[in-house]
Amino acid sequence: MKKFVVEGGRRLCGSVKISGAKNAALPILFSLLLTRGESYVENLPDIGDVRVALAILSSYGVKLRRTGESLIADTRDLTDAEPDESLVRAIRASSYLLGGALARFGRVTIRSYGGCNFADRPIDMHLSAAEALGALRDGDQLCAQTLRGGRIVFEKISVGATVNALLLAATAQGMTEIYGAAKEPHVGALISFLNSAGADIREEEGSLTVHGTGGLLSGGRTAIIPDAIEAGTYLLAAPLTGGEITVAGAIPSHLGGFLPKLRESGVRLKIGENEITASGLPTSSVCVTASPHPGFPTDLQPQFSVLLSQVGGRIRDSVFPERFGYLSALSAFGVRSDLQKQNGSAVIYPSELKNSIVYSPDLRGGAACLLAALAAEGESEIRAADNILRGYLGMQEKLPALGACVALREET
Ligand code: UD1
């Protein structure tokens, strides 16, 4: 395990290039199982979760050639396999095997999928989508010799279930309509990749219509979209350190729900076509409710709570109402909060930040701790930093380039 050692209290200024989005890269990588041919993926971030996904694909026989941020994947000769349990448990996105492996091999073992453990993360909607297309459950196996198009209605918005529904519908026989689908930019990115590989998926008002190919797709081509969550995390570092940070390559519309809240807190924003600059200190308390896109992203609420520790405010998470475990790690930095479990919210009080030593609770909670460490005077340590490196490319280089005093060391 690694740790970040941070000498906080420095003003961060400058421009940081945003990398490819983890949450777009992972469904696209697992969707390679639906293809037979060579696919080309650009702007693929070399982060922990992507490495695990590539190791899982290798176990099915996907031949991978990686040069820098480019990947060529050859899926012509695959075999049905049981990927290593430790790999499947390492990332949440391994749940995309439910769609990918079932569509390719006609069967998949339902496993315990890993990833951040900040809330109960059920898969009932993934399974009912598969069943709507003709899959049958047999113990821990999900089987379907032939998948047939059907009607899928999601009562709740789920990125994961939408991804699996798309993977199954893309190669099923006949047409599928998906209602209540997630509209996150990473879902759109998956659809573009699948369409480049020969799928026929149309985004319509209120639904997704998929004309299944009835067979495997060909190879496809894509460049992974910039990571909106990474961009939001760096933007927060500016007001927290009294600096000015430009996130280059970010797409403002992907941060739709976040930018107005940042502005409401008093932070100055300059929004260009492909970059955003944040400066100035927060001045006003803010109430935030995390909700599906285009709302405030649940993946930015832990980091936003550090900003709220400067002005006060309230956070509610309608996607994962229990996603507040990170607050106990932040309390070590002096963040005062009151968790109100009955309504899935937390009040954050204006607090004086102090340096501390903590274990990164999970990916985004760890990023929140890192922001607190950057803002607090003195030396802090964020241990179990691998949790953060799962989702953020090269923070140990990007932060020092902005003037932070941050080093990544082996934990002793
Ligand atoms: C969620 C986020 C996604 C983010 C990811 C990682 C949303 C809509 N999704 O995606 O943007 O990248 O976390 O932090 O903001 N649910 C069920 N049954 C299911 C599947 C989900 O009840 O079968 C529930 C979940 O408990 C949750 C909600 O649906 O309350 C949304 O879950 P889902 O979108 O599937 O989560 P992720 O795909 O992990």
Q: Any key phrases for this structure?
A:
single chain, 412 residues, alpha+beta, UDP-n-acetylglucosamine1-carboxyvinyl-transferase, Chain, 2 domains, 4-stranded mixed β-sheet, 14 helices, binds uridine-diphosphate-N-acetylglucosamine
Descriptive account of the structure:
- With 412 residues, the protein is an alpha+beta fold.
- It folds into 2 domains: 2-19 and 226-410, UDP-n-acetylglucosamine1-carboxyvinyl-transferase, Chain, CATH 3.65.10; 22-223, Enolpyruvate transferase domain (UDP-n-acetylglucosamine1-carboxyvinyl-transferase, Chain, Alpha-beta prism), CATH 3.65.10.10.
- The protein has helices at 22-31, 48-59, 85-90, 97-105, 124-132, 159-171, 185-196, 228-241, 258-264, 301-311, 326-331, 363-375, 386-389, 395-401, and strands at 2-8, 13-17, 38-42, 63-67, 70-74, 107-109, 136-138, 141-143, 151-153, 173-179, 200-204, 207-213, 221-223, 244-248, 268-271, 275-279, 286-290, 313-317, 336-340, 345-349, 357-359, 378-383, 405-410.
- Strands 21-22-1-23 form a 4-stranded mixed β-sheet. A 4-stranded mixed β-sheet has the order 2-14-16-15. A 4-stranded mixed β-sheet has the order 4-5-3-13.
- The mean pLDDT is 96.
- The structure holds uridine-diphosphate-N-acetylglucosamine.
- Uridine-diphosphate-N-acetylglucosamine binds at residues 23, 92, 121-126, 156-161, 182, 184, 292, 298-299, 319-320.
